[in-house]
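step=encode ok
step=design start
structure_in=
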């Protein structure tokens, strides 16, 4: 049985500066702690005007540092001690003023001093009014700190606290968590091109009715996200799914099995890895009615024809990428999955229980390759994705 946690606990120093987006830092700490990060919060005096240190202490489970002259740090040098114990620093929200301070290496409070004294990566999540963000001074500052090796997460566009609409909002806590996790992910797939199909397909009967299935796309989207975190260049061919589209991934929408086949074949030649996660309909109505079929008392007969098996076709290409399939079964799981692996000529197949996997946030799967079965413990799909891609990276 493979172990569930692919990430060892990491220490993250979360700096909070003065901006209304500081309220989102509370949710961010909660998510980071839930994802096993050891979070140390440091706030500026201005941040304390927006959210209290008590809130951040309760959520992180640790005292919050604000003061340069804090005597509770044993060596009397909180800026050195705090930055040395962090694997990375994230400043969220990072105000326009704080960004300007980073440009000049100013160190007039604890957070700016420990950023200057750091020997670990620094990420910042800017948050400000859109005019402040667009101001040439801020843009110059952003260019400079990027050149200095600081990672800029966001900002997002949308409605702002001041009522204006535009670029400058801090990314949502969940997006920041994903980006921080991506930062810590070993870059096992750096330089690899990977194509993933995900979600259900929709085979239209008439303009308002379709044959589809219960696949949510969660597993395929999770694999796409983790592949990107691991450094791969990702193309996600998405069938029907209501999930939020992941940032920074090349997404092609293809709802029918035929549209998915065409999209895959058009782009697959340059791929190193192909993972068929989509629940592709095996059949489609032989004819698609242009007008809505009228209700009638007599029996409705729909003639059905076969769809192409996308995965099998990709796997039989002369220079096929490394192909991985998913086998969702309700009975004889491993036996049927292994038979599918042979029939489709795949080096690896993921066997999962169709009764529990579809639509769920968690999955428990078994990886089947030429060396046998590798069961993974039940875990969130994002974690299963990490272990699957680590396994693929090992096989490659
Ligand atoms: O044969 P079965 O449909 O169970 O195989 C499932 C695997 O094959 C999945 O990886 C799925 O994405 C892929 N598949 C496909 N095209 C089809 C049917 C299945 O790519 N028409």
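sequence_out=
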């Amino acid at each position: 049985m493979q172990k569930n946690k692919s990430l060892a606990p990491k220490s993250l120093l979360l700096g909070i500066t003065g901006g209304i987006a500081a309220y989102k830092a509370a949710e961010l700490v909660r998510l980071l702690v839930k994802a096993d990060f050891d979070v140390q919060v440091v706030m500026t005096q201005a941040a304390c005007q927006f959210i209290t240190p008590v809130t951040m202490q309760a959520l992180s489970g640790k005292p919050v540092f604000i003061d340069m002259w804090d005597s509770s740090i044993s060596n009397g040098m909180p800026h050195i001690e705090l930055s040395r114990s962090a694997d990375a620093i994230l400043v969220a929200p990072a105000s326009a003023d704080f960004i300007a301070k980073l440009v000049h290496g100013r160190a007039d409070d604890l957070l700016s001093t420990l950023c200057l004294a750091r020997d670990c990566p620094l990420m910042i999540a800017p948050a400000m009014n859109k005019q402040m963000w667009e101001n040439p001074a801020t843009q110059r500052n952003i260019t400079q700190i990027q050149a200095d090796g600081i990672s800029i997460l966001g900002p997002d566009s949308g409605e702002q606290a001041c009522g204006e609409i535009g670029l400058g909002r801090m990314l949502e806590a969940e997006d920041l968590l994903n980006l921080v996790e991506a930062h810590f992910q070993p870059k096992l797939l750096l330089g690899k091109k990977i194509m993933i199909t995900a979600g259900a397909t929709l085979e239209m009967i008439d303009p308002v009715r379709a044959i589809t299935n219960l696949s949510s796309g969660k597993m395929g989207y999770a694999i796409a996200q983790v592949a990107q975190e691991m450094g791969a260049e990702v193309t996600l061919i998405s069938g029907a799914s209501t999930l939020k589209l992941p940032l920074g991934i090349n997404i092609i929408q293809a709802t029918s099995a035929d549209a998915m086949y065409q999209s895959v074949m058009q782009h697959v030649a340059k791929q190193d890895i192909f993972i068929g996660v989509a629940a592709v309909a095996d059949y489609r109505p032989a004819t698609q009615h242009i007008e809505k079929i009228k209700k009638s008392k007599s029996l409705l007969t729909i003639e059905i024809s076969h769809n192409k098996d996308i995965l099998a076709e990709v796997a039989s290409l002369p220079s096929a990428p490394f192909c991985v399939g998913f086998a969702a079964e309700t009975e004889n799981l491993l036996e049927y999955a292994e038979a599918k692996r042979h029939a489709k000529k795949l080096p690896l197949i993921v066997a999962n229980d169709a009764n529990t996997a579809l639509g769920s946030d968690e999955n428990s799967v078994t990886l089947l390759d030429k060396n046998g079965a590798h069961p993974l413990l039940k875990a969130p799909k994002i974690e299963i994705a990490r272990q699957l891609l680590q396994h693929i990276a090992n096989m490659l």
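step=design ok
step=annotate ok -> Residues 11-184 form a domain with the Rossmann fold fold (CATH 3.40.50.1950).
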